[in-house]
Write a structure and sequence with these properties.
343 residues, alpha+beta, 5-stranded mixed sheet, two-stranded antiparallel sheet, 13 helices, 7 strands, 14% strand, globular, disordered N terminus
């Protein structure tokens, strides 16, 4: 269903939002379509310059497309409303507006008298379409995670030796002598290092959290700032280094503070892009706590921009992911950024 939701585009988004607010979108669009057609066909349009006529025609076409998109979104919503009762637990208040897409990507606040309506979330990516915790506890595993996790000591050593052999080939191909003293043990050292750099593939949310979720009567912002993050860019396999700040608004449950840093560590110890890393951390916290809102901001320097390519030292990249109240309320976002000192 996520694919159908994405295909509606901005017009489908507008149709859904208008229906939530109780607007009669279809009739207004039809009227605007008729008005646009009449304007184009009117005798007076002969006196209108060509650019204006083209704009009116484009507006009529866009309005017609909006009607179709609105019907598509309404069909998806009605289909979701007909789900069996046993599916209801998975469709909590945080995910009702995305019931036709994916409940774990829902951005709305949990159900309650103060929970406002919310627009559709951003589309899912292949790496975040599934929930952070799958049926066997792994968290967005890679294709070889299971083999790596269940490997015996002998199989792990064989894996290290295969990587070392590949590194020795690289050293030869760049014109080095892999048998000289300084490089003699480098292939094996690098093999062990890369296994450490990517150990996040072997970790999962359940073991990281380890029952550190507690009932607590607190409904104000909780923020852990400036968590140092080290990861490898998946495009060039060189580091990007930065700091991540994680905030959430509890909904009667809080998480041990160190666990927020551990979640960031788990997802950063993989081949990553910063955009996905930011979103994965936010979705994981959302999944664990089902809070009223989650906000994650990361700022990092990418060695692929500093050491190669455009070669711009001093540049940094900032990414964010806002869910729930942080996405809906500008004042909540402003409070978060002011507490980070980024206002």
């Amino acid at each position: 269903m996520a694919k159908n939701t994405q295909s509606t585009g901005d017009d489908g988004y507008a149709a859904t939002l208008a229906r939530v607010n109780g607007l009669t979108l279809d009739s207004s669009i039809k009227n605007s379509t008729k008005a646009g057609d009449a304007a184009v066909r009117s005798p007076t349009s002969a006196r209108v310059d060509g650019a204006t006529a083209a704009r009116l025609a484009a507006a009529a076409e866009a309005a017609a497309a909006s009607v179709e998109s609105g019907h598509a979104v309404r069909g998806l919503t009605e289909e979701a409303e007909e789900e069996p009762a046993e599916a209801a637990p998975a469709r909590n208040g945080a995910g009702r507006h995305l019931a036709h897409s994916h409940p774990h990507l829902a951005d709305g606040a949990p159900a309650g008298p103060s929970a406002p309506g919310s627009p559709l979330s951003r589309p899912a990516s292949p790496y975040t379409l599934n929930p952070p915790i799958d049926f066997d506890g792994l968290s967005w595993p890679s294709i070889g995670t299971r083999d790596r996790l269940e490997a015996t000591p002998e199989e792990r050593e064989a894996k290290v030796q295969r990587i070392a052999a590949a590194v020795k080939t690289i050293l030869t191909e760049i014109g080095e002598d892999p048998d000289r003293e300084g490089l003699l043990e480098t292939p094996e050292r690098y093999a062990k290092a890369i296994m450490f750099f990517t150990q996040g593939y072997e970790q999962n949310i359940r073991s990281v959290i380890n029952r550190a979720v507690f009932e607590e009567d607190h409904d104000e912002l909780v923020i852990v700032k400036d968590i140092e993050v080290f990861s490898l860019c998946e495009h060039h396999m060189v580091p990007f280094i930065g700091k991540m700040s994680i905030g959430y608004i509890p909904n009667s449950r809080v998480l041990g503070l160190s666990k927020l840093a551990r979640i960031a560590e788990m997802f950063s110890r993989r081949l990553q892009v910063q955009e996905r890393l930011t979103k994965q951390v936010a979705l994981a916290v959302w999944e664990i706590l089902q809070p009223r809102g989650v906000a994650v901001v990361m700022e990092a320097t990418h060695m692929c921009m500093v050491m190669r390519g455009v070669q711009k030292p001093g540049s940094s990249t900032v990414t964010s992911c806002m869910l729930g109240y942080f996405r809906q309320s500008q004042k909540t976002r402003e409070e978060f950024f002011s507490l980070l000192g980024k206002r």
